[in-house]
Amino acid sequence: MKGTRQAAPHPSEAPPVEVAAVSGDAPPSAPDPDERHALVERTAYYFAEKRGFAPGEELDDWLAAEAEVDRQLLQVAARPE
To answer: For a 10 Å CB count at each end of the chain, is N or C smaller?
Structure first.
C-alpha cells in the first residue's frame, strides 16, 4: 500500500537564506559552492521536517531546496544598495 505523498512546503514557508556580506557596505556576495551546498542541505532538511520525514521524497526536498536557495540568493543580489 502506498503512502500519501506530501508536496514540499511552499517557498513562502522556507527559512530565509543567510548570505554573508563580503565586507562593510559591500553587497552580499554569491556563496561559494560549499556554502551553497550547506544552504541547500539545511533547507532540504527543513522541508523534510515539515512533511514529517516520510521516506521516499528526499530528491523532491533537495530539488525544492535548490530552487528556493537560488531564488532567495537572486533576490538578495537584486536588492538596491
So the answer is: N
3-state helix, strand, coil in the chain (%, to 5): 50, 0, 45
* Domain edges within the chain: 28-77
Rounded to whole angstroms, how far apart are CA atoms 48 and 68?
A: 14
Specify the pTM: 0.66
Do 37 and 70 touch, CB atoms closer than 8 A?
no
* Tens of pLDDT, residues 36-55: 999 999 999 999 999 999 99
Distance between CA atoms of 77 and 66, rounded to whole angstroms?
Answer: 16
